[in-house]
Amino acid sequence: MSTNVKVDTEIEDQELIQKFLKDTTLFLGPDPEIIRDHRIMPRTPSEEECMDKYTDLNQISSIRDRLQSACEEGFEMVEQMGAAPGAKWGDIITGIYSASGDLTIGSAGGVLIFSALVHHPIKFIIKNWIDEHTVGVNEGDGFIHNDSRYGNVHNTDQSMILPVFHEGKLICWAASTVHEGENGAIEPGGMPSMAETSFDEGLKMSPFKVVENYEIKRDILTFLQNSVREPKLQYEDMKVKLFACMRLEQRIKEVFETDGPDALTACLRYTNESVVTEVRRRISEWPDMTVRTQTIMDSTLRENALLKINLAVTKKDDRLIFDFSGTSPELTNRAINTQLPGMKGMVGQAFMNHIWPDLPRGQAGLSPIEFITQEGSLVDCSYEAPNSQSLMSIFHSFTVAQHATAKFLYSCPDKYTRVLAPWHNMINTFIWGGVNQHGEMLGNLCADLNGMGGGARMDRDGEHALAPIFATMADIGEQEMNEEEVPFLQLVSKKMTANTQAPGKYRGGMGYTMIASTKDSDQWGFMTTTQGSKVPTIQGLFGGYAGGSYPLCKVTDVDVYDVLLKNPEQFKHSIHETMNEQLFPGAKYSTHHMGMGFDISKRGELYMISQGSGGGYGDPLERDPTYVIMDIEEGLITSDWAKKLYKVEFNEETFALDLEATEKLRADYRELRKQQGKPYAEFIKDHVKDTPPADIPFYGSWNGDVDTIYAGSVDDKRDASNIGPIYVTNPKDVRIGELEAELEAVRKQAGIPSTDTRK
Amino acid sequence: MKVLMTEYLRIDLETENWECRVCEHVVGSARGNYKEGLLVYKRNPEDIHPSVIDPDKYKFTFCPDKDWVSIYEFYCPSCGTQMEVEYTFPGHMPLYDMEVDVDALKEQWSHREEILEPVKGPNILVDRTHGHNH
How high is the ipTM of this complex? Predict the structure, then answer.
């Protein structure tokens, strides 16, 4: 047999094997080949041909501008017509994807992380449904998707995906994604922190066809509606997304008429390739070094624990590598894990929001960046682990990325944004659900999640409750509008929480207080899904501090609406007055961490939370004293705290500054620092331990050894390359165990035998 | 030539040292961890993040739990400027946060002019003024 014949036979055999495997695959699950790859696809022969044909960059630019406008138009449509609070307040994106599935142009506003995530389901459709005779991809089809294991943040986000054809040839794709909220999960609102398996997370839509001939298939729609708590919302927003995609298709077809489909294909490819080239050029401008940082997660949302998000970023020439080795392992029965694309997408978000916001919102910006993760870690979790609260781990991923990149950017002669301290990174808001005052079943959240305190910049303070880290141009919503649909009031809202700022030469933007109370329903409840009640979730920058922590405060056994009717003067508009003065006789006052599972509320009980502060920048002793006084005047900080922290001297009645005394206070304090501070080696000897704290569950690497991972105890050390599953005991079982032990001890002490000693 | 690396630190490319930008103090070799040349202090979180609600009555108070987090402050030993703050796990080693390739930095800046004041980048926001001006 000649060599050629042998090779041909081998290829034929290989193809037969591939066909056999394809024909006999019993389940088309998430595809690692697709899911683990965030890069743009290789240039296709068709794209090559189109780029040879269309070389006029003015024409390319003109088409790109038209497509960008189309994306903005689609964004506006969804925002104006969408029913979900997330849609109304901008937690959405619309985009145009190449024939291969790469997002090339996305709407400028909205949740930019979607830019890095919706290409996965499109690539799944291309790989599996185009040639599948029972499905197929045709003009007028629409595909729906939400399962994050096929590419997404979490299952509360739903996408509508439309292929766009010209004379029977697939040219590109249009898609729209919305944070819908309700999805039929174990808790209302779509982001259950109680999920212990992926099957507790509600709808699990792999990409499938739900639209034919531009019409939603009613039988499938009914099935989806029947699976969620808000059937009307499910229908309305599917229609809204479909019509936004159809408008994108219309605009794309207008380009076909004026310039031709090949010009559009050339435009999409040029755009992606030139962004990749520009990103590599910008990376080259950074100094070659490794920057290390970490953040602390203090909760699984079910119980308090210490979990590490660890990052080392290395820049060498035009390569930029994000290495998350040493990060906490996944918790296999907790919801805070993320699939790998979610983490990558959130790093992409950091670049699109805060580092290179001038680049097109697309997948190409992230494409040249490299990632290293340990499979089975919190940021690269297994297929089995729930991830409905992946926000927790991806928000921390955002923060470590933001913190590390600031240290690269400072020395760069060319900057595209100001260097800034980390943004606040948690969604301090109420998720709610139940039957509203109109008798309708609802499950969603307050758009206050969109108001996170901004990080301080290198030349100015951070802005208050400004924007979420996951979206630009998103709004915090109109509370009065919400109250038409929900049976609770925010009795205090948008009032800054005093003394919670992150101090610095420039202080972080602060957050506001929210006090919610159910009024018009006996079937209503709240949940909160936020870390940071014990440990700040961010870092400050260059000598600035992080924001503090924050509790969930509850006042029960009170009907505050009765109080407001009979003794309105008894009510005060702050958490500290309500809790410290215990304003309502007979009521119960309690604090909790911010991972409150769904809690049925009674009329007039108070749930009180505060948003968090963005990070501070620089040494607080360098803060302009006039800025300190202005913060006092605005009620952001109190005089005593200002004096203690910023070392300023002023008249407390007139606020007149004594600059000379201030300078002396500050000089004295610098001297005190020199006396208090210890040389590095001595400090290490006194304070650094060989192992994590023994009395607190700790997850992650310790002191830089990323090959060894602690799994909740100093005695449980695992090989980072094979971490294995970790199951955490239900906190109620833990509590029962504690109480049983206490009871047993008391019985023993009192000489009372146990009631039943049988095993 | 000196390269401004952070708000308070620069690298002298000739001497290959980290220097304090406030007082000119030589902190240590740029090929090493600048933190090793600074003073370190473990700060009580209550000093920075006060308990907004009464810690005698409540478990969670807006003040971080000192048993769960440590705040390391790093000072210039010469002028007392606070150059860095690190929130970390109790007992954890401070991070070697900026490991610079000095040779690459020299090569990079051999093609650039020295910059004496940090470049801020584009000004995309109006300057903040406190108070309400409407």
Answer: 0.94
